[in-house]
Structure formats: C-alpha cells, structure tokens
Amino acid sequence: MEYSYPIEAEFVEGRKIKLRFADGKEGVVDFSSFIEADTVFERMADDGYFKRFRINPELRVLEWPDGVDIAPETLYHKATGTPLPDWMEE
C-alpha cells in the first residue's frame, strides 16, 4: 500500500489539525495522544508552541520550529484510518 504525504495543514481547535494529503484525502488528527511527559512531544501541551506547525515541503512532514516532526505514514493513518505499514508500530 502506498502512503501519501501532507500538503496542507490547518489548526482546528485544542490539539486538532486538519490535514490534506497529496492523494486528495483529508482528515483531522487529534494530537492529544502524542503529548506525554519526558518526550519531545510534551511541548505540544503549550498552545503557542502547538500552533506553530508547518508542512516542510522538502521532507514532506508536519513539523514544528525546533525540528519535531511526525512521520507522514502516521499522519495518514490517524487522519484516514488506513492501516500503518507492517514495518511501523502504533
């Protein structure tokens, strides 16, 4: 199965971002589950930090200013319900 990459990202509310992928599929990802203490994602608990995301056009990932990013396969899975590739773990 082929996975697409994000081309647009829009803040929705709380920790939710609406994503559109290169293959035309769209979905909303709730990043609340990513926030855990003592991980690189714990800084997403800060509203100001969370809203500073962007699509990196070269790497084709959703990223934050300090280089924290989320794999496109994970985003596609969370937004569309498509199963993760066999080589990935949720």
Question: How is the main sheet built?
Answer: 3 strands, antiparallel
**Uncertain segments of ≥5 residues (pLDDT<50)?**
none
* CATH fold title: NE0471 N-terminal domain-like
Q: What is the element string, with H for helices and E for strands?
A: EEEHEEEH
CATH superfamily: NE0471-like N-terminal domain
Q: Helix proportion of residues, in percent? A: 10-25%
| Number of beta-strand segments | 6
- N-end to C-end Cα span: 17 Å
Task: Give the helices and strands, then pairings.
Elements: E1 6-13, E2 16-21, E3 26-30, H1 47-50, E4 54-56, E5 61-63, E6 69-70, H2 72-80
Antiparallel strand pairs: 1-2, 2-3, 4-5, 5-6
Structure in words:
- The structure is a single chain.
- With 90 residues, this protein is of the alpha+beta class.
- It has a single domain (6-80), classed as NE0471 N-terminal domain-like, CATH 3.30.2020.10.
- It is built from two helices and six strands.
- The strands form two sheets. A three-stranded antiparallel β-sheet has the order 1-2-3, with helices on one face. A three-stranded antiparallel β-sheet has the order 4-5-6.
